[in-house]
Design brief:
The complex is a heterodimer of chains A (368) and B (244). Chain A has 368 residues and is mainly alpha-helical. Helices cover 69% and strands 6% of the residues of chain A. Chain A is elongated, with a radius of gyration of 27 Å. Chain A contains 14 helices and 4 strands. Chain A folds into 2 domains: 2-41 and 171-367, no CATH class; 47-151, 3-Layer(aba) Sandwich (abc type-2 transporter like fold). Chain A starts with a helix and ends with a helix. A 4-stranded mixed beta sheet of chain A has the order 2-1-3-4, with helices on one face. Chain B has 244 residues and is α/β, with parallel strands linked by helices. Chain B has a domain at 9-91 and 159-243: 3-Layer(aba) Sandwich (Rossmann fold), CATH 3.40.50.300. Chain B has 9 helices and 10 strands. In chain B, the strands form 2 sheets. A 6-stranded mixed beta sheet of chain B has the order 6-7-8-3-9-10, sandwiched between helices. A 4-stranded antiparallel beta sheet of chain B has the order 2-1-4-5, covered by helices on one side. In chain B, helix 3 packs across helix 4 (113-126) and helix 3 runs parallel beside helix 5 (142-153). Classes of the chains: A mainly alpha (368), B alpha/beta (244). The structure holds adenosine-5'-diphosphate (ADP) and magnesium ion. Residues 47-48, 88, 164-165 of chain B line the site of magnesium ion.
Chain lengths: 368, 244
Amino acid sequence: MKRILALARKEVLHILRDPRSLAVAIAMPLGMLLLFGYAIDMELRSLPVGVMDLDHSQTSRAIVRDMTAGGFIVDAGRIHSRDEVERGFRRKKFLAVLVFPEGMDRDLANGNSPTIQLMIDGSDAATAQTVENYLSAVIARKNIEILREDLGDIKPPLEARVRFLFNPELRSPDFVVPGLTAVIMIMICALLTSVAVAREKETGTMEQIMTTPIKPSHVLIGKVIPYMVIAVLDATLVLLIGRVVFHVQMAGSWWILAAYSLLYLFISLALGLLVSTLAKTQQVAMTVALVATMLPTLLLSGFLFPISGMPLVLQWFAHIIPATYYLEVIRGIMLTGRHWYPFELGIMIVMALFLMSVSMRKFRSRLD
Amino acid sequence: MNDNNGYAVRTDKLTRRFGSFTAVDAIDLAVKPGEIFGFLGANGAGKTTAIRMLCGLLAPTEGEAWVDGLPISSKAEEVKRHIGYMSQKFSLYNDLHVIENLEFYGGVYGLDKAEIRSRSTELLARVGLEDKGRTMTVDLSLGYKQRLALGCSVIHRPNILFLDEPTSGVDPIARRQFWDLIYELADQGTTVFVTTHYMDEAEYCSRVSIMVAGHIEAMGAPEELKTKHDVPDMQQLFITLVNR
Ligand SMILES: Nc1ncnc2c1ncn2[C@@H]1O[C@H](COP(=O)(O)OP(=O)(O)O)[C@@H](O)[C@H]1O
Ligand SMILES: [Mg+2]
């Protein structure tokens, strides 16, 4: 125990005296929180849509009013020629253009069906899709309104009432902030610990330690404790700021969330140790930790992109990434209040045991 | 096999291969307690590999060795309580204060707090760093770093001290000062097992062995070896053996 503490104390000194590790431990989590929290929140709001109104009628004005009512879309101004349309798209003045044809109102009155043209910038496919859905819905509602005027108080034969459960306003911080804790824990545990172990190998101090009577497993425990503490503090900080600044909801219990998070923390640490047993230098450790743990967690775990939308091969990959399961749990607890995840729990326990035993064994044999 | 009990270090056909390459080839050594044993050899002769086996860092491919009477193959963990080791890279933490390095090694050797404190202060004075305890280790000169590393490796008062090229790269004055420390330790009964490729340092040893390409080519007191091979100094002896 004394020996483990000696190692832990020394590791704290290293962290405090190294601006780079302090940056990763403190600045990066906060930076990521602000970046993902604000940027993603803003992006799907206030999308500019231009209007080319060749009709100048009551109906065209009413549709524009409906369209901008929610704040999701803002009116990017009037367009008077086809040239302006192309220029505006290129300069990103607007993401979509609505064209109301000349004589639309008159055609409507005569019982013809005039066509409203909708042009959308497809370069950002996800946003384009969202804008299309939104504008189509606006026009569909207008259709029903017009029919009612003609035919009295009719009802649409089928009506879909859409309500987004668990995240009623489709607010992205509710989705992103819980996911961020997964990313940050991997970052601290896998990146910082593997670099810390590799550094001792590089400078030869690991060899020196191994000639003392301390057990190899105790060396690892002592080195890892400070990073565990940092990871716990960072995760808490991110959730706290998420709650206070971004009003992220918490439907479930903090304690149960903490228990699952601890399990995920062990998996992250085991991954970090595994990387450090394979890597002989800090450079290699950093690269492997980034490519093998950070990137998959960022891109494939469902943190930013839903897994169901990925190509099949990437979906397989997604299912061997620990964060995939942890994300399921943390989002579930925070958004739905569900507490019991036997499947995810089972897989995470198996992963933790497997990775821990492999990295311990590797660590021991590598010193031979 | 009880003849190893009287020795601080004894090896029996100790061998280490890396793949098909034999770095240490069936060496037999016998070091008596309290001796300063010079383990000489050119670069690549296999000195570090042999020391790493004796310190339990590397498993022998064949053969056996006894350190303080304990077989390294089965009692490696216990051996570690009896030895100190200063590696070729003398492994200090550059971002720690001088005293923090001593305290850290005291901690991993399992000394208690009071002991760590008294030993650290004592060793600081012994290696001539009494007023530099709060200096950042990176700012020390190479000579001081080597002495600090020596201090760290004896903080737990080991019976046997392994030093792997402890004086490489420093000026003759610093080397002389380092050897004064080695003598002090030996006077207090510590067995010192030291590798070097400075042949003048070989003259300071009670006994030496000379290793060439994994083999021990000669072993004995410096005077004895010089007479036997009819050479004026260790330098000549070394050249003769390597070219043989
Ligand atoms: N881990 C290793 N793997 C392969 N070869 C090694 C290893 N360690 C040492 N060697 C080789 O063994 C030989 C002896 O090395 P070493 O014991 O370091 O020599 P010395 O300390 O006498 O300079 C060298 O040729 C070296 O390349
Ligand atoms: Mg060497």
